[in-house]
Amino acid sequence: MTGPSRGPGQHRLFWAALAAPGIIWLALLFIVPFYAILAIAGGQLDLFGNPVAVWNPLHWSSANFTGAWHDVAGASAFVGPILLRTVLYVALASLISLLIAYPAAYFVARFAGRRKALFLILLIAPFWISYMMRMLAWIDLLQTSGYVNKVLSSLHLISQPVDWLGGMWITVVLGLVYGYIPYLILVLYAGLDRIDQALIEAGRDLGLGRVRTFLRVTLPMSRQPILTGMLITVLPMLGDYFTNQLLSGTTGTAMFGNVIDDQLTSSGGVLAGQGAVFSLLFLLVLIAPMIYYVVATNRSSRGAT
Amino acid sequence: MTSTATRSSARAGETRTAGTMLGKLLPRRNPWRHAWFLEGFTWLYLIWSLLPVALAVLFSFNNGRSQSVWQGFSWRWYYQDPVNSVLHNPDLHAAVVQTLRLSVYVTLITVPLGVAFALGINRWRGPVASSFNFVMILSFVIPELIFGVAMFFVFTRLFTTVGLGSLAEVLALVTWNVSWPALIVQARLVTIGRHYEEAAADLGATPWQVTYRVMMRLLTPAIFASAVLVFSGVIDDFVLVDLLSSNSSNTPMSVYIYSQQRGGNGGPALNALGTIMLVMSFVVAIIGYIGYRWLTRGERGSRLEALTTIAGSEG
After folding, report:
1. Residues B102 and B230 in one domain
2. What is the ipTM of this complex?
3. Please, is B101 exposed, middle or buried when counting C-beta atoms within 10 Å of its C-beta (0-12, 13-18, 19+)?
């Protein structure tokens, strides 16, 4: 943007040619696929009730939309409670995540001193451990004969082993927290680390105590990292279908992601059209926070350089 | 970091003499004292975050089926057991191979594609460039499940010659990961500025020479870091490969663990598989860290910066 633009004419062609493979790739394998969702969602049902993709928007029908609406509000509605449960689980899990992540990130950013590298390595380590391995670790611990029950009963907190993996909501919520908290912590750390130490010192020098410096200086300045951090954890949590499958596996803890996943894979394709409709609705709800995230990170990265 | 520590101890004296109403009432405490409570809290978090995985790794070496009673060390679940070890069970074996294959193919395609895209988009200004840049950023933030559904439909209904399987997995993973090199290279381009490029152009270099001789040299750390992120991202990826795999020959490790573990205990061989995944990721991370430090030697920047870059956060 800055500086003189030199040699536009023929050089533009060179840069365009360089970008072309990526542009074609994204057009064919990112834009077209989303049109495919639309074509399936707006498609018709054949004689056997299987969804058929309709590529011409003028011939789109509302068959799948009606089907999806019946799932949400009809006589045999099952999606409504699942939606509510998803929102509750995700709200609770992200709140717990924030309560755990903020103090830890705050400590590492402000007080870790010369041990910062050590703490940072330990905070980043979960990124390099596969999500499935981390869930597997908890499945081992949470079995009826696992360590969690052993520890709890040796402390006399429970009299008989708890079936943690038998469909308990608390297991699923804590599983979500465990799964996504590393992302939140790293965003918070990056944001808190960027706060100018001099501002905090100024607060102190002007006579604020530790707590009030935090409330008046640090906390207001970490609003942006908190928001982006919450987005970066809430967005994937909303689409999560594997955590509750692994940690509970019962329909009593099913989330919205499971509805889409089931309609795509388990129904043998009959409900794929409704899966497409739900994916579209999901996208529609999330498009605003997604764009907010893009704008916010753009702004903060421009502010940093 | 260290400068903060010395600065704060120097300041400690001043703040104490500054003395406020509150300070006079309360017993004098060093306001820059160490935050022991927060430190304890952080250690508790770290233990909670890492101990379960350490135990899972430990029990992959257990000489027995139990995940909670230690029965002695063995390599049984890795290669000694003639039926259920990772080496001898064909499905487990295939999962390891598939993950490695996907990681290599996807990295080899994604990195050149993303780097060329970033360079081109950054220099070729215009509505097409900026709208596709937006599409690329959108692909970075879109929930993976929605993208996976889109990919599932496009390969089963439109590009039916692709179908489900390894090819679909590679195509989807490349699209999903191409934003890594694109974003990191663009960030690096901003830091580099245009001086080198303009100097080279003034000396008579063509755009191709500028790109190849100057920009590629300056971008090497960014390209390397994005290759590391893509490679490890593919090892860990689950949703896309779960939706797009069709049989055991194209099922990578993450999906295999999920399908075996869901609804019950899949046995210690799964722990061994998970440990292999973990070791693969850690090796990539260590190579990435050392390589990045080596490539950026002589530049200002710290170990911490290298750490956060390799973790995918420009912190």
Report:
1. yes
2. 0.86
3. middle
Domain CATH code at residue A149: 1.10.3720.10
Which A-chain residues 244-273 have CB contacts (< 8 A) with chain B? 245-246, 249, 257, 260-261, 264-265, 272
For residue A101, is it within any domain?
A: yes
Domain membership flag for residue B223: yes
- The whole-number mean pLDDT for each consecutive block of 10 residues of chain A, a chain of 305 residues, reads 48 87 95 89 74 78 80 77 93 96 92 87 89 91 87 87 88 95 92 85 79 83 89 90 87 88 76 84 87 75 46
Q: pLDDT tens across B270-309, in order?
A: 889 999 999 999 999 999 989 988 888 877 766 777 777 7
User: Residue B213 is encoded by which pair of tokens?
Assistant: 């001789």
Are A40 and B31 inside 8 Å of each other by CB? no
CA B195 to chain CA centroid, nearest Å? 31
Identify the domain containing residue A282 by its residue range. 39-77+267-305
Q: What is the number of domains present in chain A? A: 2
Q: Decide: A129 and B284 in contact? Cβ < 8 Å.
A: no
B117 touches chain A (CB under 8 A): yes
Whether chain A has a CB inside 8 Å of the CB on B78: the answer is no
B215 shares a domain with B70: no
Q: Which domain holds residue B10?
A: 2-80
Q: How far apart are CA A297 and CA A291, in angstroms?
A: 10
Rounded to two decimals, the pTM is 0.86
Query: A8 lies in a domain?
Result: no
| Tally of domains in chain B | 2
pLDDT digits (tens, 9 = 90+) for B178-209: 999 999 999 888 888 888 888 888 888 888 88
DSSP labels, B128-167? HHHHHHHHHHHHHHS-HHHHHHHHHHIIIIISTTT-SSHH
**Sign (positive or negative) of CA dihedral A185, A186, A187, A192:** positive
Q: Does a structural domain hold residue A213?
A: yes
Same domain, A85 and A62: no
